[in-house]
Write a structure and sequence with these properties.
Helices cover about 5% and strands about 55% of the residues. It is built from one helix and eleven strands; from the N terminus they run E-E-E-E-H-E-E-E-E-E-E-E. The chain has one helix at about 65-70, and strands spanning about 10-15, 20-25, 40-50, 55-65, 75, 80, 90-100, 105-115, 120-130, 135-145, 150-160.
C-alpha cells in the first residue's frame, strides 16, 4: 500500500448578505497520488434569494487530467472512448446550478456543466434533499456526458454533532 499526504486550502467571503464568493485549491501536494487525487482549482459565486428559498451558483473548476482520461479520451460527439485522441489540457469546467426550497425541509437541486476544453462535454445533474439544521439526506443523479447514456447516482446522509 502506497501512503502519502496531500493538502488543500480554501477561503470564502460574504460580499453582501446575499452574495458569497469562494476560492480553493485541492490536492496541492499530490505527487504520490496524482492519479487518484488530481490537483483542482475552484472559484465560485453564490446568490441567495429570499432568505435561502432559492440559491443560484456559478462555479469554475480547473482539474488536472488523470492517466485514465489521457489514455482513453471521451469523444463527446461519438459518445465513445477513443484512444487515438489524447487529452493534453486540464479540464476547464463551468457549472451553473440552483437550489429551490419547497416547504421547510425539502430542496430540489439542479445543475448544468460545460467543459470548454477540447472535450466540449456537457454535464447535467438533478437531485432532491431533506435538510434540517443538523441533519441532511440527499439523492442525486447525473449524466457526466450528455452524449452517453450512462448515469451516476449518489446518496448522502450527514449528521452534525456538537460536543
Amino acid at each position: 500500500v502506497d501512503k502519502g499526504v496531500t493538502w488543500g486550502i480554501g477561503t470564502v467571503a460574504h460580499l453582501t448578505k446575499n452574495i458569497r464568493i469562494g476560492l480553493s485549491v485541492e490536492n496541492m501536494a499530490n505527487h504520490k497520488h496524482k492519479e487518484v487525487a488530481p490537483r483542482t482549482y475552484r472559484a465560485g459565486v453564490a446568490y441567495i434569494v429570499g432568505n435561502g428559498v432559492v440559491t443560484l451558483h456559478g462555479d469554475y473548476r480547473q482539474r488536472d487530467r488523470v492517466m485514465q482520461e489521457v489514455l482513453f479520451s471521451k469523444v463527446e460527439s461519438a459518445g465513445a472512448y477513443d484512444s487515438s485522441k489524447k487529452l493534453k489540457s486540464s479540464e476547464k469546467l463551468l457549472i451553473g446550478s440552483a437550489s429551490v426550497k419547497i416547504q421547510d425541509l425539502l430542496r430540489f437541486v439542479g445543475g448544468y456543466g460545460y467543459d470548454f476544453d477540447q472535450t466540449k462535454r456537457q454535464i447535467l445533474a438533478l437531485g432532491i434533499a431533506l435538510v434540517n439544521k443538523n441533519f441532511s439526506l440527499s439523492y442525486a443523479v447525473n449524466r457526466p456526458y450528455l452524449s452517453d447514456g450512462s448515469y451516476h447516482q449518489a446518496f448522502n446522509m450527514s449528521y452534525n454533532m456538537v460536543l
